[in-house]
Amino acid sequence: MVRSESASRPSEARTRLLKTASQVFYAEGIHSVGVDRIVAEAQVTRATFYRHFPSKETLVVAYLTEVDRAVRSQVDAAVAAKLPAADTIRALSASIAENIQSPGFRGCAFLNAVAEYPDPDHPVHVAVLEHRQWFLDTVMELLGRIREQSAERAAHHFVMMRDGAMAAGCLFDPVLVCETFLTGVERLLEVHSTRFSAKPTDA
Question: How far apart, in whole angstroms, are the C-alpha atoms of residue 56 and residue 147?
Fold first, then answer.
C-alpha cells in the first residue's frame, strides 16, 4: 500500500538519484563515484537511496536502462520515418554522428561500463550485452531489407565502425571522426547493396 504511488510513477527522489548518477557515471566513470557522492548531490538520505536502489549496481543497471531507452528512441524515430532501408541506416548514422559532436561527449556509455565490469555474469555486463545484441539485430534487420545475403556480416561491420567512431570521437577531432564514419557507412551500403552475379561455370 505504501508503494502504490511510486508504482504508478517514479518518485521525485528516485528521479533525482538517477539523473545525478547518470551525469556523474558518464562524465567520470562508475567505480570512481561512490554512493555518498550521489546521495549528497541528489540531496537525499542514504535511507532514501537504498529504498529505491538496493545496491549501487542496481543504480548502474537503471542508468544503463535509461541510456538504452534513449538509443531505442533515436532508432525508433529513424524507422518511423518509413524511409528506404538504406536511408534509415543513413539517418541512424547521422544521429550517431550528431551525438559524437555534442558537448560533453565521453564515448559509448555501454562500452565504458563494460570495461569496468568485465565479469560476463555481472548484471551490468549482461545489461550491456543485451543492449548491443538488440542494436546489432536492428541494424541487421535493416540491412536485410536491402539484401538478405551477408546482412549479418554487414551489420557487424556497421557496429564496429560505430564503436570506432564513438571511441575516437572523444579523443580526436570529432568532426573529422564523423566524416570518416559517415563515409565508411556510405561505402558499406554501396558494397552491401551490390548484387554480385554468379561466376560463370565452365562449359
Answer: 44
Q: Is the dihedral of CA 171, 174, 180, 184 positive or negative?
A: positive
Cβ atoms 30, 106 nearer than 8 A: no
Q: Nearest 5°: phi and psi at 200?
A: -65, 140
- Can you give the pLDDT at residue 201? 44
pLDDT tens, residue by residue, 71-88: 999 899 989 999 999 999
- Percent with pLDDT over 70 in the chain: 91
Residues 6+ apart with CB under 8 A from 53: 17, 59, 62
Query: For residue 37, with 0-12 CB atoms within 10 Å meaning exposed, 13-18 middle and 19 or more buried, which class applies?
Result: middle
Instruction: Answer yes or no: are the C-beta atoms of 144 and 151 closer than 8 Å.
Output: yes
User: Using N-to-C axis directions, what is the helix angle for 56-80 and 12-28, rounded to 10°?
Assistant: 90
Mean pLDDT confidence for 107-129: 97
Q: How confident is the model at residue 195 (pLDDT cuts 50, 70, 90)?
A: low
Give the range among 20-29, 69-78, 121-130, 191-200 with minimum mean pLDDT. 191-200
